[in-house]
C-alpha cells in the first residue's frame, strides 16, 4: 500500500470518507502566537531556552513567531477559505497562569475566548489542547515535570481553562506528545528545559501521564458533555535485521516510545519489560499507589500524531544515526542508549524523517488489535520540505501534497479495515517556529514570509481544500 515517493502510471481511484469525518489542521501556541510579554503573559521554559546560546538554530526565537496573537482573525479566515471543519490549537499556560498556579490572567484567557468565538462564527469546530510544551518557568524552577506537584498544578490549570471555555469548546486533549516533553526536555536536552538527567526524564514521563489523568478527572467533574482525550506520538518500529540484538532493540524503542504511554492510558499499567529495562536507571518509587488508575481515567478518544517509521539496530557500533539534532544533545532513549537508528532506504523529508505511510496502517490497526476500542483521530501528520516562493508569487509543493495524500489513503484503508478513525488534522496549518530548528523547517500548508508576515496558500493547501470540499480524494492520473 505504501508509495515510498513513486507512483505507478495508472489512474489512482477516488476515495470518499464517511459522512462526518473531521477535516482539520493543527498548530501550537508557542510556535505561532508571538507576543511573549503581551497582556501579562509569564515566561515559559521555551522563552528561557531560546535565550541560551547554542540552543536554537541561528539563535532564532519566538518573540514574534508568525504574530498569530494579533493576526488570528485573518488566520481564521484562511481556515474558512480552506474549508476546515475543525482547528486544533493549544493554549499557552503562562499566558493564562503566568506563574503556573493561582488565579487566571483575564487578558490572556480572553484571547482564547475571542479565538474560539471567531472560529465558531465561521462554523469551524475548536479542538483545544491544554499543553504543548510551554511550561511556566516558575514551575520549572520548582522542579518542573520531574516534580510530582507539577501534575497537580496542571490539573488546576485544566480545570480553570475548562470552566471558562467548555460552553463553547466540546473537544479537549490534555498533553501533546508526552514522550517529547519528557525525553527531549529532560534526557537529551534537545528541547526545553534542556536538561540531561535520565532519571529525571523518567519521573517527568510518569508525571506527564499523571497530569493527563488528573486533568481528565478535573474536567469530567465539571462537565459530562466534553469529549476528552490524550495525545500520543506513535511510530511504526522495525528491527534492522532479524538478529536477536536488533529485535530486542525494536522491542525496547517500541516500549519507551509507544507502549509506555499507550498501556498506561488505555490499560492502566506500565509494560513489565519496559520497567525491567529501566530498573538500573531508577527504582521507580515515584510511581505511587493509585497513579495508574488515575492515568487510565476513561477518555472519549485517542489523538495520534504520526510522522515516520523507526528502523533500529542493537548491534554495537553498527547503527547510523537518524537526522541529527540541531544541538549537541544526549540520548533520549533512557535505558536503551545503545540502540541505533538505521536509514531504511526510504525517501526523507527536510527533517531527515523517512516517509513511510504504510507505517500509519500498522499503528492504527495495532491500536485496534491490542487495546480497548476507542474513537481515533490523526491529530498531526505532515512533512517539512524546502518550500520557496516562486517569481509568480506561488508556492508549488507537490511533495507535501503527495505525502498527505498517501497518508490519507492509508487512513481510508484503515477505516475500511474496521479502524474507528474519525478525523484527520494536517500539521501544520502554517509555517512557524519549529522548536530547536527555529524557522529553517517549513511544515505549513500556508507559506509565511517571516519578515512581512504575509500568508500565501501553497499548492498543497489548495489541493487539501479540494479534498475537503469533495469529502475525499479525487482520482488523478500519475
TrEMBL record:
The keyword Nucleus does not apply. Keywords: Carbohydrate metabolism, Cellulose degradation, Glycosidase, Hydrolase, Polysaccharide degradation. The keyword Hydrolase applies. Its EC number is 3.2.1.21. The active site is at 380 (nucleophile). It catalyses: Hydrolysis of terminal, non-reducing beta-D-glucosyl residues with release of beta-D-glucose. It holds the Pfam family Glyco_hydro_1. Gene3D superfamilies: Glycosidases. Belongs to the glycosyl hydrolase 1 family. This is Beta-glucosidase. The lineage of its organism: Bacteria, Bacillati, Actinomycetota, Actinomycetes, Streptosporangiales.
Amino acid at each position: 500500500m505504501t508509495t515510498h515517493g513513486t507512483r505507478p502510471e495508472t489512474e489512482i481511484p477516488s476515495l470518499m470518507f464517511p459522512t462526518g469525518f473531521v477535516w482539520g489542521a493543527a498548530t501550537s501556541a508557542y510556535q505561532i502566537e508571538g507576543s511573549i510579554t503581551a497582556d501579562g503573559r509569564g515566561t515559559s521554559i521555551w522563552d528561557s531556552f531560546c535565550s541560551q546560546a547554542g540552543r536554537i538554530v541561528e539563535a532564532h526565537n519566538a518573540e514574534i513567531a508568525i504574530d498569530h496573537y494579533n493576526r488570528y482573525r485573518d488566520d481564521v479566515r484562511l481556515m474558512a477559505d480552506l474549508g476546515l471543519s475543525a482547528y486544533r490549537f493549544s493554549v499557552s499556560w503562562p499566558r493564562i497562569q503566568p506563574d503556573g498556579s493561582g488565579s487566571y490572567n483575564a487578558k490572556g484567557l480572553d484571547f482564547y475566548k475571542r479565538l474560539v468565538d471567531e472560529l465558531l462564527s465561521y462554523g469551524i469546530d475548536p479542538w483545544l489542547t491544554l499543553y504543548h510544551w510551554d511550561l511556566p518557568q516558575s514551575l520549572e524552577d520548582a522542579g518542573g515535570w520531574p516534580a510530582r506537584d507539577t501534575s497537580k498544578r496542571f490539573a488546576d490549570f485544566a480545570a480553570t481553562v475548562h470552566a471558562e471555555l467548555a460552553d463553547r469548546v466540546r473537544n479537549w486533549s490534555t498533553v501533546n506528545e508526552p514522550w517529547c516533553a519528557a525525553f527531549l526536555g529532560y534526557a537529551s536536552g534537545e528541547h526545553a528545559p534542556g536538561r540531561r538527567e535520565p532519571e529525571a526524564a523518567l519521573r517527568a514521563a510518569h508525571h506527564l501521564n499523571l497530569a493527563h489523568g488528573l486533568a481528565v478527572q478535573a474536567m469530567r467533574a465539571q462537565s459530562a458533555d466534553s469529549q476528552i482525550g490524550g495525545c500520543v506520538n506513535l511510530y511504526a518500529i522495525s528491527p534492522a535485521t532479524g538478529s536477536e540484538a536488533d529485535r530486542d532493540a525494536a522491542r525496547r524503542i517500541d516500549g519507551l516510545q509507544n507502549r509506555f504511554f499507550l498501556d498506561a492510558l488505555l490499560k492502566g499499567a506500565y509494560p513489565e519489560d519496559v520497567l525491567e529495562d529501566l530498573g538500573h536507571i531508577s527504582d521507580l518509587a515515584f510511581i505511587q499507589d493509585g497513579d495508574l488508575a488515575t492515568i487510565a481515567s476513561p477518555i472519549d478518544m485517542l489523538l495520534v500524531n504520526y510522522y515516520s517509521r523507526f528502523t533500529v539496530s542493537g548491534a554495537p557500533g553498527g547503527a547510523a544515526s537518524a537526522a541529527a539534532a540541531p544541538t549537541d544533545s544526549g540520548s533520549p532513549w533512557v535505558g536503551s542508549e545503545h540502540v541505533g537508528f538505521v536509514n531504511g532506504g526510504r525517501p526523507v523529508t527536510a527533517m531527515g524523517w523517512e516517509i513511510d505511510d504504510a507505517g500509519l496502517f500498522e499503528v492504527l490497526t495495532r491500536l485496534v488489535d491490542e487495546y480497548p476500542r476507542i474513537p481515533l483521530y490523526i491529530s498531526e501528520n505532515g512533512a517539512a520540505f524546502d518550500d520557496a516562493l516562486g517569481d509568480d508569487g506561488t508556492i508549488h509543493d507537490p511533495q507535501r501534497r503527495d505525502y498527505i495524500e498517501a497518508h490519507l489513503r492509508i487512513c481510508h484503508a484503515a477505516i475500511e479495515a474496521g479502524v474507528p478513525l474519525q478525523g484527520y488534522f494536517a500539521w501544520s496549518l502554517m509555517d512557524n517556529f519549529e522548536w530547536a530548528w527555529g524557522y529553517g523547517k517549513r511544515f505549513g500548508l500556508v507559506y509565511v514570509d517571516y519578515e512581512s508576515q504575509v500568508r500565501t496558500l501553497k499548492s498543497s493547501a489548495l489541493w487539501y481544500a479540494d479534498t475537503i470540499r469533495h469529502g475525499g480524494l479525487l482520482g488523478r492520473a500519475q
